[in-house]
Amino acid sequence: MIIGIFSGLNVIERDISISYSKGIRIQSISTDINDVKKKFDLSDIMYFAKCGVETIIEDDVTQRFSAEELPSWNLLSRTSYGYHYISLRLTIIWGLGFLARYFVLLPFRLILAVLGIGWLIVCTAFIGYLPAGKFKRELNQYVMLMCFRILSRACSAIVTFHNRENKAKNGICVANHTSPIDVIVLSCDNCYALVGQAQGGLLGVLQRAMGRATAHIWFERSEVKDRHLVTKRLKEHVDDLDKLPMLIFPEGTCINNTSVMMFKKGSFEVGTTIYPVAVKYDHRFGDAFWNSSKQGMIQHLLNIMTSWAVVCDVWYLPPMSKLDGEDAVEFANRVKSEIARKGGLVDLEWDGQLKRAKVKDSWKEKPQEEYSKMLKVD
Amino acid sequence: MGARSSMQLQEEEINEIQRETGFSQSQIVRLYSRFTSLDKSNNGFLSREDFLRIPELAINPLGDRIVHAFFQESNDDTVNFKQFMRVLARFRPIKTNQDKNKMNTREDKLRFAFKMYDLDGDDKISKDELLAVLHMMVGANISEEQLGSIADRTITEVDYNKDNQISFEEFVKAMEKVDVEQKMSIRFLN
């Protein structure tokens, strides 16, 4: 007895969309609605009504903050949206899979993770004692790659790197963000200086350990608000050619890897070459998305370590620089489009912070403005 | 773990909704999944905040009126799945087979549009109500006098019984030449 297996496809075909930068877009009308000038008609309300109800049924944004739906079940109960009791045979298979994942794969991966972290702390402490110089840098590179490769095995990560000739040597590397695992995945192939908020607990220990061997940038919570300070520290790091390229996730939050959301302009103001990187996970083996509003980090890591595997593709894109006459926001959008295109992700202008924050009332002003431009007023 | 969208929807409820609204089984199930994903507090109801959490709806100048339409259906400050579906049913495309049109006739669609203007629900659109809705649509971009003259012109054009208000019948007559089927229908897949 099978009840409701979803195909994970769209429910409707969207016709009208309102965006706060592009105004009103209607698919079914061939001329650009924004070029039309007409008198007010009582039926104008129908555009707004239809668009509104369409977004209630299906919108571009809220779906990005929950894990991607799969066309068919991958035997993980966490991805069983709407799948209910399907059949006895399937349940048995799922049960076997469960036992394999939790009692064979998980212990093995946990041991690797502990080894990896332990080795990292020991080696970085040792490297920390060395005098600054070429040897220290090369040893750090060697050790970091080794440790992150161990950690990636702890997640059973199978990563395919493309276009490695574009790998960053210094400057700033930007990538789309899905999970903290992104760092491990990217660090298997190249050494980066990480940027982030200083944390407590085990993460803090790791941060300090890595900080001994090479320069990373860890901000205190209070410092994050100070934009100038952030830009200054980034610039100082980037100008020093002996330091590693910085890895930054300009979305500022984890998105579910079906789209790329607004890039914050901070890293694009520093004025250096940007090395874009696109990361795309294959969700059939296990969803890598960290829904930080629903799950803690530990639970997320547990999820990763009890999935079948973490399979992903990483594309190194050719370096990009800000063009003359382009401002930081335009540059950020340009880089975002490139990453979205390469990774096969949807390019959205919406801010990832909408995961938690509300839309500002003032955003209504743009569609209001667009509509009033269309009206012929006596 | 997946409990969010587990099938709390009983077979009989699906059939009932199908009879009432004309949606197919798979459409109902799919829309139920959407309903539960909007229901962040997981209590089987949607509140106003749940709707306005959708960014594209929040920036829609008439977002509040649209949400209000759902709460008018429920006559309450929460919307359950049946009430949710009843409102969505208005936007089903009109089928050539008359029997298949449950809540989506031309008149049903026009009534939805009429209610968007009728702020106090007295079945008439007054000049003040028209002005208020115009205000929502254009914001501060058009002056009061110009909006006033637009409202006056609109009412004069359609007001047959000269009571300076638009009744539903007058509204229907005014929309005679409008392709309501296209403008107030959403293309549902499968």
TrEMBL record, chain A:
<keyword id="KW-0808">Transferase</keyword>
<keyword id="KW-0594">Phospholipid biosynthesis</keyword>
<protein>
    <recommendedName>
        <fullName>Phospholipid/glycerol acyltransferase domain-containing protein</fullName>
    </recommendedName>
</protein>
<dbReference type="GO" id="GO:0016020">
    <property type="term" value="C:membrane"/>
</dbReference>
<dbReference type="InterPro" id="IPR045252">
    <property type="entry name" value="LPCAT1-like"/>
</dbReference>
<dbReference type="GO" id="GO:0005783">
    <property type="term" value="C:endoplasmic reticulum"/>
</dbReference>
<feature type="transmembrane region" description="Helical">
    <location>
        <begin position="86"/>
        <end position="104"/>
    </location>
</feature>
<dbReference type="GO" id="GO:0008654">
    <property type="term" value="P:phospholipid biosynthetic process"/>
</dbReference>
<keyword id="KW-0812">Transmembrane</keyword>
<dbReference type="Pfam" id="PF01553">
    <property type="entry name" value="Acyltransferase"/>
</dbReference>
<comment type="pathway">
    <text>Phospholipid metabolism.</text>
</comment>
<keyword id="KW-0444">Lipid biosynthesis</keyword>
<keyword id="KW-0472">Membrane</keyword>
<dbReference type="GO" id="GO:0019432">
    <property type="term" value="P:triglyceride biosynthetic process"/>
</dbReference>
<keyword id="KW-0443">Lipid metabolism</keyword>
<feature type="transmembrane region" description="Helical">
    <location>
        <begin position="110"/>
        <end position="130"/>
    </location>
</feature>
<comment type="similarity">
    <text>Belongs to the 1-acyl-sn-glycerol-3-phosphate acyltransferase family.</text>
</comment>
<feature type="domain" description="Phospholipid/glycerol acyltransferase">
    <location>
        <begin position="171"/>
        <end position="282"/>
    </location>
</feature>
<keyword id="KW-1133">Transmembrane helix</keyword>
<keyword id="KW-1208">Phospholipid metabolism</keyword>
<keyword id="KW-0012">Acyltransferase</keyword>
<comment type="pathway">
    <text>Lipid metabolism.</text>
</comment>
Automatic annotation (TrEMBL), chain B:
<keyword id="KW-0539">Nucleus</keyword>
<dbReference type="GO" id="GO:0005509">
    <property type="term" value="F:calcium ion binding"/>
</dbReference>
<dbReference type="GO" id="GO:0005737">
    <property type="term" value="C:cytoplasm"/>
</dbReference>
<dbReference type="InterPro" id="IPR011992">
    <property type="entry name" value="EF-hand-dom_pair"/>
</dbReference>
<feature type="domain" description="EF-hand">
    <location>
        <begin position="146"/>
        <end position="181"/>
    </location>
</feature>
<keyword id="KW-0106">Calcium</keyword>
<keyword id="KW-0963">Cytoplasm</keyword>
<keyword id="KW-0653">Protein transport</keyword>
<keyword id="KW-0519">Myristate</keyword>
<keyword id="KW-0449">Lipoprotein</keyword>
<keyword id="KW-0677">Repeat</keyword>
<dbReference type="GO" id="GO:0015031">
    <property type="term" value="P:protein transport"/>
</dbReference>
<feature type="domain" description="EF-hand">
    <location>
        <begin position="105"/>
        <end position="140"/>
    </location>
</feature>
<protein>
    <recommendedName>
        <fullName>EF-hand domain-containing protein</fullName>
    </recommendedName>
</protein>
<dbReference type="GO" id="GO:0005634">
    <property type="term" value="C:nucleus"/>
</dbReference>
<keyword id="KW-0479">Metal-binding</keyword>
<keyword id="KW-1003">Cell membrane</keyword>
<dbReference type="Pfam" id="PF13499">
    <property type="entry name" value="EF-hand_7"/>
</dbReference>
<feature type="domain" description="EF-hand">
    <location>
        <begin position="26"/>
        <end position="61"/>
    </location>
</feature>
<dbReference type="GO" id="GO:0005886">
    <property type="term" value="C:plasma membrane"/>
</dbReference>
<dbReference type="InterPro" id="IPR018247">
    <property type="entry name" value="EF_Hand_1_Ca_BS"/>
</dbReference>
<dbReference type="InterPro" id="IPR002048">
    <property type="entry name" value="EF_hand_dom"/>
</dbReference>
